Amino acid sequence: MNLDHLSPPVRLTEGVAKGSSSIGDMFERRVAASPHRRAWRAKQAGGWRESTWREVRDQAAAVASWLCARGLELGDTVLVVGSTRSQWYLCDLGGQLGGLVTVGAYPTLSVEQLGYVIEHSDAKVVFAEGAKEVAAVREVAARCPKLQCIVVWEPDGIEPGHAPGHEPGYEVVPFSEVLKAAVDEDELRRRREAIEPDHVAIVVYTSGTTGPPKGAMLTQANLLAFLSGGVGVEFDEDDENLSFLPMAHVAERIAGFYMRVNVGISTALASSVPAVLEEIKEVRPTLFGAVPRIFEKAYDRIQAQVDQAPPMRQKVFRWAEGVGLAVVDRWQRGEPVRLSLRLQYRLADRLVFSKIREVFGGRVRMFVTGAAPIPSQVLRFFWALGFPVFEAYGQTEATVITHVNRPGSTRLGSVGRALSFIEHRLADDGEVLVRGPLVFRGYHKNDDATREAIDDDGWLHTGDIGRIDDDGYLYIVDRKKHIIITAGGKNITPANIENEVKAQDPIISQVHAHGDRRPYVSAMVTLSPTDALDWAQGKGMIGADEVTRMKAELLANPLSRPEGLDELLAEVGRRPEIRDRVLAAVRRANAKLSQVEKVKRVMVLERELSIEEDEITPTLKVKRKNIEKGFAERFDRLYAEDGYGLTVEGKG
Length: 652
Fold this sequence. Notes:
This protein is α/β, with parallel strands linked by helices. Helix content is 39%, strand content 19%. It contains 22 helices and 28 strands. The chain starts with 22 loop residues before the first helix and ends in a 5-residue tail after the last strand.
């Protein structure tokens, strides 16, 4: 029995990237190949409205012609800030048809961060979602001299024309007006023919975990090499996914959107993040991508619900879980699954696993995750349920993906093998190096950083420490700059410690291991808002209405901080029962760690880490450098004051 059967044979769709000269040209070829097939569908008035590739082309060409008519030349920059929706796609495609550089910005960026990206990218036109985004752009417009226009998707309450109180250097235009522009086919053809492979197509600003965001320039050749080379995954012509991840991220932009244009498959656009759980049942997608934290939270939620279920249901679930894990482990060892275990698995699937899969519509044949490590027990659990979760690895500077697990070639815990057209090796210190057509052109306006990233032989220094097994599977150990060197000279990988502690109790949301030049390791722990809310409600600390309100806000935006949540987390974190749970979790983790890795002191932060304080990125990555700097005094106290924080075990 091989769990790769969970990804059944498909009718391979033919991509159009091969032979294309640019992303705009690839889009034109897609429209010509399947003009009447569905490109995407979106919720309108309670129903799903479909758009064909031909309809999309008509609108994108109008956007491109409008931009050309405003005087934007080949290679000029436009920026898009807003949630993932059809307008985002049209603005991106319009920019590409016009031979422009398109840049995405997260709608969660602070005004200061957004201003930095607009100014640094030299954006001439900003496409903005609504009043909130327009207000943010207006606030920083004075320092963006190249800005000519803000185009707003939802103009309700926004005065068009030149903004009052500002120099008449830019104006605000409704997107509906842009879509009315006459299409200039001759100009679009001229521009398409003028685009060269080494022209920059998109600039993607990194999350900035080690400083200000850097704009990675990806060329037409970079993008087409990835799209035409393939990732070893076959797409069915009737495949569909549910889109809700931010288009500002390189994964959703390239591996998601551009790949769908290449192979011609459809997507359904979630009407909002809170609506995902309901709409996934309507859409019944076959493909699904998410960051590891989503799977971790789902795992924690399932386990918590099982723990609260009646004893008999708990017993059935734990039996099924054990059967599924046994099958997964035998599959990974390359051992056959005996008949009795096969029969047990079929029963477990009928009684338990199939019901959980229905939460995702019941048709998902492939999950893809990346951007951060996913705990082993979470990964094994989802495979046991019949959810094939394939880990991939890459970075913005290498055009999204360089390594991937795939059907027929999966090793859990690894990030897979290198793509066939990519070279990889480890430097003497274990850093992962990659070389090939996916390596980016460099950082916009930052030659020093470019030289630091790409050496004279063309190797991209990823900054990740890894190991490669005898079969070519890559395992990521940690970030190079994250290695802790204790006062005793021991090298420690903090990610190992953090993942082990987080895995012990769902009440723990984030863990930051600290110990560079210290005598031992300490840790800062934050509490999971949703689990803390459930616990507090059970103790009568908060009413059901307040819990519902805060959970709804968190579901709509996991990075939000609902009113009253920080105060509640602080109070929950002071409770002896919670502190005992945290200590117990750390002690269980310590039992699995080496002596030098063991955590000996802990502080429970009174709130979650925040994007406003520049502690996490929009993709939920912890900014280690900022944490170390921002909490330096509190870490000092952990080592200097015996009464500060929690003592896990003896120090020294």
